[in-house]
Amino acid sequence: SAIRLGMMPADGIGREVLPCAQRVLQNTPGAPKFEFLQLAAGFEHFQKTGSALPDETIRALKEECDGAMFGSVSSPSHKVEGYSSPIVRLRKELDLYANIRPVIGVRGTKDDEKWVDTVIVRENTECLYVKSETSESTPEGQVARAIRQISEKASTRIGRKAFEVALARQSMREKTGATTSGNAATAKVTVCHKSNVLSVTDGLFRTSVRAVYEKDARSAGGPGRYANVTMDEQLVDSMVYRLFREPHVFDVVVAPNLYGDIISDGAAALVGSLGVVASVNAGDTFFMGEPVHGSAPDIAGQNKANPIASIRSAALLLEYMGYPEPALKIYKAVDDVLREGKYLTPDLHGSATTTQCEEAILKALGA
Ligand code: NAI
Ligand code: MG
After folding, report:
1. Which of 17, 125, 196, 360 is the most exposed, fewest CB within 10 Å of its CB?
2. What fold characterizes domain 1-104+279-367?
3. What is d(CA 267, CA 247) in angstroms, rounded to the nearest whole number?
């Protein structure tokens, strides 16, 4: 039977790029059959109905869908009464505790020595994003505080996810025969933290992730599951520095929510545009593909948006849902179009439209 995917284009360019991803999924040779359910979400839907994420969308996702794709949402930067981000709520409702963001360069377009092929595994449920903020008046003026929550449970499960991602990447590398440069040729997990300063919170994150690896190494009955994965660590500030100078040394990076958010957007700058960076929100059994970019109001409605982030997110979703072969075909078609350089959108200094870029990818797929 067909795989049912809930599609939430939401706002702005999400409505232009998510349909591209859908057509690519429908036309990838060897991909399973899909059924797509169009579901409402987003700020515009909130303005019309008072709800940014209708209960019906959540019900359909939970009861009828095997996976999902989200476009992008326009979140107002001021507080709007009754509004809360649908993406944050979706992650909670579906228990999507990991945000997995591969950042991949294009071979042959840059210095291959420093080729970027890194995945950032970001914890999605806690850290400063528990949004527990207070403010009080003092004789010296306002003082604002935020609570940062780090738990052993959430840190352990994100740690386990990171080691699983490292194994999955290793197996994809073996399938394609691709070898990456630098240390990333072997599977490695780098723990990102700042426990030299925040020894209690980041200290707990660090020891919890490390414990996943150390327990596995001590497991009885032969070599552990992660025996071929190495582990190291990096303080978040020097992580940013190294990411810019020698991105090729990183394979999988695991980070608490806020650091993960910042370093993954920063890493996107290394590969030319936010318009090519994909992500998947992962739980243990449910996955939701989502381009990293926002709704891009400056270019929305002009057929200028780069559809690649969205198309790669669809491929990631396929990969995580257990279909690596068709996912690889999509990755390769995208790489071919990027390398050829004839059908790139303006964010990559080309002059192609969204439609032309999508058509070039469909053609490269042999669709
Ligand atoms: P943004 O990602 O929407 O845009 C940043 C810049 O990158 C803009 O110049 C835009 O034109 C460009 N850009 C982004 N995606 C592109 C693509 N596919 N092709 C070509 N160019 C692209 O971030 P910004 O401007 O900070 O936020 C705009 C709105 O999006 C805000 O309401 C914000 O809250 C929301 N947002 C939503 C996210 C989500 O849905 N997960 C993530 C980030 C922002
Ligand atoms: Mg961000």
Report:
1. 196
2. Isopropylmalate Dehydrogenase (3.40.718)
3. 8
Asked casually if ipTM beats, i.e. exceeds, 0.90, the reply is yes
Domain ranges in the chain are 1-104+279-367, 107-270
**Domain over 107-270 is classified CATH 3.40.718.10:** yes
Amino acid present at 139: P
Pocket test residue of 15, 96, 274 for ligand 1, highest count of atoms within 8 A of CB: 274
Domains 1-104+279-367 and 107-270 share a fold: yes
Element (H, E) at 191: strand 188-193
Nearest CA to ligand 1 atom 32: 74
Q: What's the CA-to-centroid distance between 19 and ligand 1, angstroms?
A: 17
Joined together, the tokens standing for residue 171 give 């197996």
What is d(CA 34, CA 289) in angstroms, rounded to the nearest whole number? 15
Length of the chain: 367
Query: What is the chain's pLDDT, residue by residue, as a tens digit (367 residues)?
Result: 899 999 999 999 999 999 999 999 999 999 999 999 999 999 999 999 999 999 999 999 999 999 999 999 998 888 888 898 899 889 989 999 999 999 988 755 555 566 788 999 999 999 998 889 999 999 999 999 999 999 999 999 999 999 999 999 988 888 776 654 444 467 999 999 999 999 999 999 999 999 999 999 988 777 899 999 999 999 999 999 999 899 888 999 999 999 999 998 888 888 888 999 999 999 999 999 999 999 999 999 999 999 999 999 999 999 999 999 999 999 999 999 999 999 999 999 999 999 999 999 999 999 7
Ligand 1 contacts (CB < 6 A) are: 13, 72-75, 87, 274-275, 293-299, 305-306, 309, 345, 347
Task: Give Cα 33 distance to the centre of its chain.
Answer: 24
Position in ligand 1 atom list of the atom nearest CA 307: 18
Asked if 39 and 61 count as a contact pair (C-beta separation under 8 A), the reply is yes
Residue that the structure tokens 């349909």 belong to: 19
Alpha carbon distance 320, 61 (integer Å): 17
